[in-house]
Amino acid sequence: MALHDALAELELEIDDYALEGRVRRINPEFERHTTVVRLRGGGEEGLGEDVTYDPEAQLRQQEAGPLLPLAGSWTLDGFSRHLAGLDLFGGTPPWMDAFLRYRRWAFESAAADLALRQAGRSLAEALGREPQPVRFVVSLRLPEPPAPDPVERRLAAYPGLEFKLDATPSWDDALIERLAATGSVTAIDFKGAYKGTPVDVVTDPELYRRCAEAFPGAWLEDPDLSLPEADAALEPHRERITWDAPIHGVPDIEALPFLPRSINVKPSRVGSWRELLETYEWCAARGILTYGGGQSELDVGRGQIQYLASLFHGDQPNDIAPRGYDWADFPERGLPRSPLPPELEPTGFRRRS
Fold it and tell me: Does residue 283 sit in helix, strand or coil?
């Protein structure tokens, strides 16, 4: 039985819903806004989190309130198809198409949480999968001019921590050597698949070569291989190339220049349960490793991607560290260590907080 079949016919009763804003300054340049979705029905509540990277769109949604026609009796798959036909942005199209999937996932995840709670079952039980401990890494972009301090300070507080780092052309050989000496870098993110966003990084074939050679055990995420010189720089390291930003489901993986050994699967970037579970199954059938990625979630969304990691790829370098590790003022004690135990609530789609 396909994984999605295990969820599709779950009955779902929605009476109403509410929206709650969340905000946190992650660092001096980035104030994060998200919205918690609370679907209510049958004496239960299901939660999801909208991770759209547009503060104004988040505030518009919160100020407008619960205007979507969601009340009624559904199956989970029927509710998903209903969502696909709604204008989730209230007549103001988002400036990135990906945000349509981000917002849809907030309602899809909340609906699954509610349906499972109404049925008295957990997601793990419904899918027939045994939760596993979750290995996680911390994703960081170093300041400009770049310095290793953010990595070294976190390692001093939490020895054994692993990192995924955004490489930029300003990285010199001394910095790369110092980072490599920590033995903590498990992935380098070139951000080459991003175009027209605040996190774009210029394609630099020499940077690609230097990083690939300096971090011989690290995954190399989202290089821009459209430039022949960049493709040539990473050709000897092709088995370590992995992808994140272009992946919204199976068709995007099939469209890659070659099938990779590993793929970053972000539920919010995929957008729906059907496409997400089909992506996991498609990759598993071809021996492609999957790992999870975060979206700077501020609430229940972080625990939900950790939940999925525990079911599908707990042993991989999941970019889903608990909240706090990515803050500029990160707590120097008290944060959970990797691997996270699979502490899941007995019903629904949530980790224990």
Answer: helix
Write down the domain spans for the chain.
5-123, 127-312
Cα angle 264, 269, 271; round to 5: 125
CA distances, 223 to each of 10, 188, 214, 337 (Å):
40, 10, 16, 30
pLDDT along the chain (353 residues), means of 10: 94 98 92 98 98 97 98 98 98 95 98 98 98 98 94 98 97 98 98 80 96 98 96 98 97 96 98 98 98 96 98 98 94 97 97 87
Other beta carbons within 10 Å of 195? 9
Architecture of domain 127-312: Alpha-Beta Barrel (3.20)
* Euclidean distance between CA atoms 35 and 325, whole angstroms: 21
pTM given for the model:
0.97
Q: Nearest Cα to 322, choosing from 158, 104, 181?
A: 158
Domain 5-123: which CATH number of 3.40.50.720, 3.30.310.50, 3.30.750.24, 3.30.390.10:
3.30.390.10
